[in-house]
Automatic annotation (TrEMBL):
A family per Pfam: AAA_24
Protein known as: Putative ATPase domain containing protein
Lineage, uppermost ranks: unclassified sequences, metagenomes, organismal metagenomes
Length: 281
């Protein structure tokens, strides 16, 4: 009888071989801003989000795209409807999400970053869609209990999918004051539904507070606060690792060529300011 030939067993490759040195995680070439800008209306959230490098797409849920009028590196899409009860804004945003992913797979997406403004309106339009799932209503035609979970799940899935894009991504949000049941007192959190208030900040590397104030000459100046404690403990910046690269507050002076996110990227990666496309000029 001929000898039995046993085929070689392929050597199993350990999943640990995929581990990479931490020194290769962040550099000027591959670093993508994943951030949330919070603050009251008029604090400069939308405008300062456009300081991301490269060509940007703004998904406007508020009907306030005029804020970015004249910016040559920004294009806008309307994700709202004149009917406050319409779900079309949410359905269109989901269509945009699918098209963005499709364009990335095909390699023809013309944008380096996406901005969604704001979370408050996004939640409102998603609730309009959620109301279609069950005809039952609360008092005065308000949403019933069963409408909130679909809203929370779908908005969460949308944000996480957009954040996972190989692009810069900014979500703008308003704030609300809530009672801290564990520690007592009050604290600030993004305005959202239920547990999303505490979960959303954990999804982002950058969580900033936007503010404005008048200087001695009466001129408005805009600022970012990028780290906080106590009432503001959700504020943080991974870009400013261990506070090595800047101190708060960061002035957002739109008269400067390199400002906002382009400024902070330049501080973290000093040699990249011009070579790696940090400037939009």
């Amino acid at each position: 009888m001929p000898p039995t030939i046993t085929p070689p067993v392929p050597k199993k490759i350990s999943v640990l071989s995929a581990a990479k040195p931490a020194t290769e995680i962040a550099n000027a070439v591959n670093y993508k801003i994943k951030g949330m800008l919070t603050g009251p209306s008029g604090s400069g959230k939308r405008m300062s989000s456009t300081t991301l490098p490269g060509k940007l797409l703004l998904l406007d849920f508020d009907g306030r795209k005029e804020t970015v009028a004249g910016l040559s590196h920004v294009e806008t899409l309307d994700c709202y409807d004149s009917d406050p009860k319409s779900p079309k804004g949410w359905m269109y945003a989901e269509e945009v999400r699918r098209d963005v992913w499709s364009s990335i797979r095909k390699g023809n997406l013309p944008y380096e970053g996406i901005i969604e403004a704001t979370l408050t309106s996004m939640l409102r339009y998603c609730m309009n869609w959620s109301l279609l799932l069950d005809p039952k209503r609360g008092l005065g035609g308000s949403p019933a209990k069963q409408h909130y979970m679909p809203q929370m799940k779908n908005v969460s899935d949308h944000i996480l999918a957009m954040k996972s894009l190989p692009l810069h991504y900014i979500l703008t949000a308003h704030l609300e004051i809530i009672e801290d049941e564990e520690m007592g007192g009050l604290k600030y959190l993004p305005k959202a539904t239920g547990k999303m208030r505490t979960e959303i900040p954990g999804w982002f590397n950058e969580c900033y507070f936007c503010s404005r104030e008048k200087d001695k000459e009466g001129k408005l100046r805009y600022y970012w606060t990028t780290a906080g404690t106590g009432r503001w403990d959700f504020l943080k910046s991974t870009l400013n690792q261990l506070g090595k690269w800047w101190e708060d507050p960061i002035e957002i002076n739109f008269s400067r060529e390199i400002v906002g996110f382009r400024d902070l990227l330049g501080r973290r990666f000093p040699s990249s300011i011009e070579k790696k496309g940090v400037s939009n000029a």
